[in-house]
Amino acid sequence: MSICSVCFHHCDLQEGQTGLCLARTCRGGAVVPANYGLLTSLALDPIEKKPLRRFHPGARILSVGSYGCNLRCPFCQNHEISWSKEAEGIAQSAVKVYGRSGSAEGFGDRDDLARMVREVSPEELAALAAKLQPEGNIGVAYTYNEPLTGYEYVRDCGKLVHELGMKNVLVTNGTAEPAVCEELLPYIDAMNIDLKGFTDRFYSMVGGSLSMTKDFIETAVSGGCHVELTCLVIPGENDSEEEMEEMSAWIASLDGGKGEIPLHISRFFPAFHMTDRPATEVARVYRLADVARRKLKDVYTGNC
Q1: How far apart are CA 7 and CA 212, in angstroms?
Q2: Where do the domains of the chain lie, and which CATH numbers do they carry?
Q3: pTM above 0.90?
Q4: Is the distance from CB of 259 to CB of 297 less than 8 angstroms?
């Protein structure tokens, strides 16, 4: 048995067993990313869609995603590749077909779900990013599912993308040990990190750890990375003015009170296991943005 050291779950895995994230497994007594190089999503997106507003505005970036996530947000908008039954099917197919060798031969023929997956090596991804430069591409964004479940792929791709003089962007829930963040920092130019709420109760609901996320954010900021944060506001869960006051004050403390770390406050729409909830009122999003602006200079509203 081997213990995964990526996040606070510390999954204890037997040979061939997959962790809670669905993306890491035990092979030969070591925990490795079963989703290494297996992409479910590939698109050339505006940088603002990550969302990043203070990092190369107007640019486009090659955005890639795999499968798996170490949180269990009941409102997940990418549940097909994160932690739904569909995602579990992809994970089972990947472990079965790729096995120890990493061969993808016949992968698409084994399972309908597996046809969502394409194997793309770091070299191939970097080459594609360079090829798209005439279309305004500035690099690669690791996004859609939780990229830290396969952070080794992010690291390896990031090195090659940097060698080509291009940028790397990480879109993450920040649920990983600071050591993971530190290993990636030399290759990551910007991050958008989900700060899902600012109470232990809310983080318990999504299966996460507020303290780990805060530590990850602090490590990224202190490491000199451009950081922007996003909070999805859900009615009755994380939408109080008091919570936003505490969150924005903490964010401002990260840069010595200057308040220059951008915060994106997004409107919730019913999704996945929370289709019985109403969408967040636009007025509520705007009100919380006003509260955050007491401490922060750059506060943006989304989905309004």
Answers
A1: 8
A2: 37-79+92-302 (3.20.20.70)
A3: yes
A4: yes
